[in-house]
Amino acid sequence: MNSRFFSSLAVRNIQSNKQLYVPYILASIAIVAMFHLMASLLTNEFVQERNASLTMMFEFGAIVIATFAVIFILYTNSFLIKRRKKEIGLYGILGLEKRHVAKILFFESLYTGLASLAAGVLTGLVFGRLFFLLLNYMMNLPVSFDYSTSWLTVLLTAGLFVFIFLLALLYNISQFTFAKPVKLLKGSTEGEREPKGSIMLFGLALIFLGAGYGISIGIDNPLNALTYFFVAVLAVIAGTYFLFIAGSIFILKTLKKNKRFYYRPGPFISVSGMLYWMKQNAAGLANICILSAMVIITVSTTITIFAGTEEILENQLPYENNWTIYGGDLTQEELTESFAGLQDRFRETANEMSLEVTESEAYRFQTFAGKITDGQFEARADVSADDLPLFLQVIPVEDYNRLIGASAELAADEALFYHSDEADVREELTIGGMSYQLSPADPASVSEDGQDITETAMLVVPDLTHIEAIADAYYADFTNEVKAGIDAQISWNTTGTEEEKKAYAAAVQSFVADAPTSSYRSRIAVTKEWYSMNGGFLFLGVFLGLLFTIGTVPITYFKQVSEGYDDRGKYQIMKKVGLDRDMIRDSTRSQLLWMFLLPIAVAVIHVLFAYPIVQKMLMLFGITSNTTWLLSFSGVVMAFALVYYIIYRFTSRVYVSIVR
């Protein structure tokens, strides 16, 4: 027998099993197209030149898609080979050798793989420009450039998916190499025994879920959120699998013990059927649940970040113009001269451009890291995410008065004090070898950035010499630390249109050359940068959400098809013993409803428990509004539930048609 015979037989097999292969190929095409598109964006010169952070995000996205592609294709391929076991066993009974069957499977994998790869790359090329324009719209940039790709991207895509389809082929060949033909003939119809309820697995489910939820709820430091987030995710994933495998069986067996409920036609059929096949169903339901949770978290979080861009800018840059002078080796006189001279220069420039300074604040300060213990400030040079120090900002009373329009006067041993925990009221504080009698400072003098990442405090002292004395004592404890000087911050707004403010920002930016120890940040200039980065986050989030949704479709479909073939014989027997079609339909509907509601309900619970740690992560971006996330979360849940409902309605019809 030549290769042409096996090739023709492979084509015929694909055609006869088109109910399984068409969804498999379509899903593979979608994933190939998405990876090719992400890889194209990753290597696009415009993206690389526009914002370096976008390249890093797309690298992460490409890794996620590649990982998901491996898992998804191997997972759905396992459904295909299960339905083909009887056919493969029949080949052996008819006299074909295992090497002949391997050739048939090779050609089947070759044709499906080539079709998926070619159509996927073509789809990526066709829709590439559309998605690229969408990306730049989200980045708030003009769309005056073209989408581009390269042969390197095509080769990278081809290499990845050739490897994945090769793994699937090796798995398929292994399924019959070590099995007897008679065993294969029963492979697709051989059911599982009724699973036993395992208290140990159920306990593990509670332990893993409790650990994941506990990490999320217990995180109080935003800097630790990123580190422990993935630990919590892994714990919840493990707990989800154990919960569906053990918890669902426990619930079903509890229902079965309720004789009044169980011994009725509808519950008897649905509960017994679900219990008999739950070990297989549990894995599919857990996969759908995890994918659903990923879609909700990914999309809602990235929408929140993009929608909260203005809030981020408002928190980080309350004023339109922000100038920082780094004291370094400047003397008090040099710092004060530069501090006053720059303020005059900014106002003069505004007047020359027919603008007016409307709001402003200016102060000199120095920040020290440490801890207050029993009224004593203990200096710390190390800053770790696990144990953040108190950041104490010290300013002179002269600048404090100017900030709030006060006329406070302080003796040499007096100071004003404010703590981010306003309940922390102190009467005395020793710092830098000096003891101060404290009075409360007006919170209006504190530059609030809307974030509560770490503990902060402000100390108002009589003059700059006190700050220098505190700094001398602070750095005397650290031989390897370079002493920092007193810095100054000048922030202000102006009148004018957006174009006038842009021109003014450009004029102020030119002053940096004359003040090398300072920096300038314009909110208008930073806005473009932030929309660029957050637009990339949104694009990546929606992209991955779409990927996980696409993954949900074939997993749900193949689960329904597999269960349909498994249950068809059982329902035919039920018809023969007298159950009418309406009763069978009602019991089937209740079973499908259970399958539909359970994964998405558990996914929503996962996301609700994930909110505390997600909220801490959002704080790192400058998002402090709970309302923004809750609105995004609610909208995404409703949208995904609708999409999932449509998916399940379609796949349920496939199930019912097979069963009948």
Would you mind describing this structure in some detail?
By secondary structure, the chain is of the alpha+beta class. Among the domains are: 1-134 and 148-185, no CATH class; 327-516, no CATH class. 69% of the residues lie in helices and 10% in strands. The chain has helices spanning 3-16, 18-43, 45-50, 52-93, 98-138, 151-177, 181-185, 199-218, 222-257, 259-262, 265-307, 309-316, 332-352, 397-404, 464-476, 498-509, 523-576, 581-621, 626-659, and strands at residues 321-325, 357-373, 376-379, 390-396, 414-419, 428-431, 434-440, 456-461, 487-494, 518-522. β2 (357-373) and β3 form a beta hairpin. α8 packs parallel to α18, α11 runs antiparallel to α17 and α18 runs antiparallel to α19. It is elongated and about 100 Å long. The two termini are 40 Å apart. The model has no long low-confidence stretch (mean pLDDT 77). InterPro entries: ABC-4_Integral_Memb_Prot (IPR052536), ABC3_permease_C (IPR003838), ABC_permease_BceB-typ (IPR027022). It is found in: Cell membrane.
Described by strand count, sense and barrel closure, the largest sheet is: 10 strands, mixed
Percent range of helical residues: 55-70%
> Quick one: overall form?
elongated
The helix-and-strand class reads alpha+beta
Tell me the number of strands.
Answer: 10
**Kindly state the mean pLDDT as a whole number?**
77
**Count of helices?**
19
Distance between the termini: 40 Å
- Report low-confidence residues grouped into runs of 5 or more: none
* Series of H and E elements: HHHHHHHHHHHHEHEEEHEEEEHEHEHHH
Percent of residues in beta strands: 5-15%
Radius of gyration: 33 Å
